[in-house]
Specification:
Distance between the termini: 81 Å
Number of strands: 14
Strand content: 15-25%
Radius of gyration: 25 Å
Order of helices and strands: EHHHHEEEHEHEHEHEEHEHHEHEEHEHH
CATH class of the largest domain: Alpha Beta
CATH superfamily of the largest domain: Nitrogenase molybdenum iron protein domain
CATH topology of the largest domain: Rossmann fold
Shape: globular
Oligomer: single chain
Number of domains: 3
CATH architecture of the largest domain: 3-Layer(aba) Sandwich
């Protein structure tokens, strides 16, 4: 962890202080991902088997999980976990349904009616990581909005375990969401398979899900392909920024930082506070709690990129946060809602001392597939609308055309597009 007094840094030092980890080696990662895509494009399933053998040390003849395998896996999940997944799903449905967009139609001028249609994306590909730990929660976070949107076909990829099976809890979560097509594929090769299609893997129209730097690079490459799939967002290594005042319990703040640090060695955690005493207390508490974690080694590596930032005021803290645009923003403040208007860029916000980020990861109802690495300046987290297409429509009467047609003609001619103007004018000619 690195302690920072913000007022002591110049502009360049401030940018360096909050730089995300992992910028080095990006060119090599992108080159490796391109090679994976080239292999899958050329050799399809044969390439997927070779890549799975290489990266996962597993020999697979068939990638797709069979109905019997799915049923056996679901039955093997302990009842308390199955119940927890079901409860989380219900809260996700409640939240996502409340935020669903709706179709509309409005008269923009007499005789001119304009509206919006909503249609589900036909085939979507979901990626559920299982790098250092399986993430059944991600299957819920993606499966619930896909189901609410009404996508006709949902494909889910998750890395195989050492014995060649898929994680049972991930399969249980997928089953709860009505997902029937699950493939034991991980990493960039899973993204390539869903983007390109193979004999066994259907080509998908849009790809969803978080992942490591290779998965993120693969999604971005897929989105740049001619005719390639869309992607949900850049969703890479996890991160949290905590804005805390002097009254924040150090034990809570430390646990929030560690809950993100244990995700992976390239996660980043940041504390911004106007209290020097809190910095001291949190630093001590982080070290105490760290020693008790099963994933201490992973969290320790992530903490190399941790920043404990002392500022002169909470207004300055929010300015830093908005510039950083964190995936998760925790407001450990005495009156957090009073500060909410200051938040301009964040993936998801957690208010007060009793809203740990872990609830958002699992079961509060909000979605945990969120933009990372500053993408929250412009991107939003996954929602039902992520799985839908919005199609505009217009219906115009002859009277409506006569009313607004001259406007179109004027603009068309200003742009030098006479055929556009004529498409209006010819409709206004007297009927023979």
């Amino acid at each position: 962890m690195k302690r920072i007094v913000w007022s002591s840094l110049d502009t360049a030092a401030r940018a360096e202080c909050l730089a995300r980890p992992g910028a080095e080696g990006q060119a090599e990662i992108e080159a490796a991902v391109r090679r994976v895509f080239d292999q899958v494009r050329a050799d399809g399933d044969t390439a997927l088997r070779a890549l799975t053998r290489r990266f996962d040390a597993v020999e697979l003849g068939v990638f797709e999980v069979s109905a019997d395998e799915m049923a056996a896996a679901v039955a093997s999940v302990p009842a308390p976990l199955r119940q927890a997944l079901a409860e989380a799903r219900e809260r996700l449905i409640t939240w996502h349904r409340a935020g669903m967009a709706s179709e509309f139609e409005v008269e923009t001028a007499p005789g001119v009616s304009c509206g919006r249609l909503l249609r589900p994306i036909g085939r979507v590909g979901l990626y559920v990581p299982a790098g250092t730990a399986p993430l059944p929660s991600t299957a819920l976070m993606l499966g619930v909005p896909a189901a609410l949107a009404g996508c006709a076909e949902v494909v889910l990829c998750t890395p195989p375990r050492a014995d060649g099976s898929a994680d049972p809890a991930v399969l249980a979560a997928a089953s709860l969401c009505g997902i029937r097509r699950v493939f034991k594929l991980g990493g960039a090769q899973a993204i390539a398979a869903m983007a390109l299609g193979t004999d066994t893997m259907p080509r998908c129209d849009k790809l969803f899900g978080p992942g490591n730097r290779y998965v993120t690079a693969a999604k971005q490459l897929a989105a740049m392909m001619s005719g390639g799939p869309a992607i949900d967002m850049p969703a890479g290594p996890s991160e949290v920024l905590v804005i805390a005042d002097a009254g924040a319990p150090p034990v809570h703040v430390a646990s929030d930082l560690l809950s993100q640090a244990e995700h992976g060695p390239d996660s980043q955690v940041v504390l911004v506070t106007d209290s020097a005493a809190l910095v001291d207390a949190v630093e001590t508490e982080v070290r105490r709690q760290l020693a008790q974690l099963p994933r201490e080694a992973i969290a320790t590596r992530a903490l190399e990129f941790a920043r404990l930032v002392q500022v002169d005021s909470l207004d300055e803290a929010f300015a830093i946060s908005n510039d950083y645009a964190p995936e998760h923003l925790i407001l450990a403040l005495r009156e957090p809602r009073a500060w909410l208007a200051k938040v301009q860029s964040a993936g998801s916000v957690f208010l007060g001392d009793y809203a740990p980020e872990g609830l958002g990861d699992y079961c509060s109802g909000t979605n945990h597939v969120l933009p990372t690495h500053g993408a929250a300046r412009a991107w939003s987290g996954v929602s039902v609308s992520s799985f839908q297409k919005a199609i505009s429509l217009q219906e115009v009467s002859r009277e409506g055309l006569a009313l607004i047609g001259p406007c179109a003609v004027e603009i068309a001619r200003a742009e030098g597009l006479e055929a556009h103007a004529q498409s209006v004018l010819r409709r206004l000619e007297p009927t023979p």
